[in-house]
Amino acid sequence: MSHPHAATTPSRLRAGGDAATSPVLRRAAFASFIGTFVEWFDYAVYGFLATVIAVVFFPATDTRSALMATYGVFALSFIVRPIGGVIWGHFGDRFGRKSTLTLSIFIMSSATFVIAFLPSYQTAGLAAPVLLLLTRLVQGFAASGEYAGAASFLAEHAPDRRRGIYTCLVPAGEAAGLLAASLFVALLHALLTTDQLQAWGWRLPFLFALPFGYVGVFIRRRLEETRHFKSLEAAHHVPPAPVLELLGKHRRQVLIAFGGTLLNAVGFYLVLSYMPTYLATELGISETAAFLGSTITLMVYLASIFVMGALSDRLGRKAVLIACSLLFAILTVPLFIVLSSVSFTGLGSGGFLAILGIWALFGALLAMNGGTLPTLLCELFPTRVRYSGFALSFNAANALFGGTAPLIATWLIGASGSKLAPAWFLVAAALVTLLAIAMTTAGRAGSTLDDD
After folding, report:
1. DSSP H or E stretch at residue 308
2. Any stretches that span the bilayer, and where are they (predicted)?
3. Residue 444: helix, strand or coil by DSSP?
4. Rounded distance, CA 145 to CA 164, Å?
5. CA–CA separation, 103 vs 80, rounded Å?
6. How far apart are CA 69 and CA 46, in angstroms?
7. Would you tell me which of 34, 128, 237, 313 could form a disulfide with 124, CB atoms 3.0–4.6 Å apart?
8. DSSP string for residues in 89-103
9. What is the DSSP letter of 354?
10. What is the pLDDT along the chain (452 residues), one digit of tens a residue?
11. CA 219 → CA 34, 168, 303, 414, distances in Å?
12. From residue 205, how far is each of 102, 110, 180 by CA, in Å?
């Protein structure tokens, strides 16, 4: 579809070639990176400290019940994400990516900072978990606009032929946040006693959210709006109601994006957030070994993301995501079988090296998806509704199956008595994603962003 004002848009903007100057692109890249770093540093800290938070915020019951309550709060904070996705998507598509992202990181980092000052159950009783839930809801609402907005912002700044390698900086920020959280929590476990960790040590990482977030606010306020959004404004094609247009004209793309995100949602939280707890509680691995393994796996994941982003520029997003889904569907259960049969006898043991190898392989496989999916989701939707389409589908999938993944995995193990239950959950997610990606024509090699 062509627009009557299309001639007013410079051809180099519509082509998405080299319109963005290097300084502009570098600032956009760092601004997108820092926001997702803050977002996932918080989520990872909460996940890695789940066993400590369970003791601090919930009454003394059996360990599994307290842990499930902790993961329940984690899951409930995701309920607001689709709602937040609609709201942030509306503002992002209606008023621009820059201002929306500046506000989202301010609210998100402030809410995370507040968690450090919440009272414990011993001090405030039931008010403690209620306050924790409310704070997580605010944080989840703000975060629901961050990932989609940062990816859209960066994809619209990047040259067409290098969109994959630039946009993968968003999941790289995600991985860096996880890695920083893993290192921080490992350091806490190494330096503090259990009593110190439960009394005050768990609060320390949440304090860092505020300075990180305010750096992001400072940078984002000085950014240029994307060329794609500016071209819409110049042509007076900014939609008055982006979500209504999205659901009216692009329902198929929303369903494809939702299904395409499922493996990312489940895999991310099982492999990179829940796995240390799984190894410690179900397989008897020491917490020190679990966090060391998590750190190494995150390094593999972070390095692999850039490889996959570059590969997707050559082969196309669709090809990489289909290959990833097939590999997860085929390898997950066998790898979990080997994992559950390994005997852990210490950090230097062959058993630990086997666990580390399997975990790192999962990290590399997940990077095939994580380093590629954001660019595909940007290419699925036109500029008019890109922020809304990405945010709604991505947040809905993560609300239903991502944030709940640790809770579902813990429940499945308890209900079935099988330590392989999380593996079958991951296989099911891979098959749904495989079907969704196979249905789209977007994401092929040489794809461009649609300005219609």
Report:
1. helix 287-315
2. 40-60, 66-88, 164-188, 200-219, 254-276, 288-307, 319-339, 351-378, 390-414, 420-439
3. strand
4. 21
5. 17
6. 13
7. 128
8. HHHHHHH-HHHHHHH
9. H
10. 333 333 333 333 344 444 445 777 888 888 889 888 988 888 788 877 887 888 888 776 666 677 777 777 777 777 888 899 899 999 999 998 988 999 988 998 999 899 999 998 888 888 888 898 889 889 888 888 889 999 999 999 888 888 999 999 999 998 898 888 878 888 888 888 888 888 899 999 999 888 888 888 888 888 888 888 888 888 878 888 899 999 999 999 999 999 999 999 999 888 877 887 788 877 778 877 887 888 888 899 999 999 999 999 999 999 999 999 999 999 999 999 988 887 766 666 677 888 889 999 999 999 999 999 999 999 999 999 999 999 999 999 988 888 788 888 888 888 888 888 889 999 999 999 999 999 988 877 666 777 55
11. 9, 19, 25, 46
12. 22, 13, 10
SS3 263: helix
Tokens of residue 416, six digits: 């079935």
Give the residue among 332, 356, 328 at the shortest CA–CA distance from 344. Answer: 356
Give the pair of three-digit tokens for residue 336.
Answer: 């979990």
* 3-state DSSP helix/strand/coil % of the chain, to nearest 5: 80, 0, 20
Tokens of 7: 């001639």
Dig out the tokens for 84 from the structure: 């937040």
Q: Which residue has the tokens 């507040």?
A: 114
Six-digit token pair at 362? 């999962």
Q: What is the DSSP string of 127-189?
A: HHHHHHHHHHHHHHHHHTTHHHHHHHHHHHHS-GGGHHHHHTHHHHHHHHHHHHHHHHHHHHH
Q: What's at 267, amino acid-wise? A: G
Residue count of the chain: 452
Residue 444 dihedral angles phi and psi, to the nearest 5°: -80, 160
CA 19 from centroid of its chain's CA atoms: 29
Report whether 34 contacts 174 (CB < 8 A).
no
Identity at 445, one-letter amino acid code: A
Q: Identify residue 31 by its one-letter amino acid code.
A: A
CATH 1.20.1250.20 assigned to 12-438: yes
Sequence spans of domains, the chain: 12-438
CB 255 within 8 A of CB 377: no
**CA distance between the termini of the chain:** 7
- Residue-wise burial string across 395-421, b where 16 or more C-beta atoms lie within 10 A, e elsewhere: bbbbbbbbbbbbbbbbebbeeeeebbb
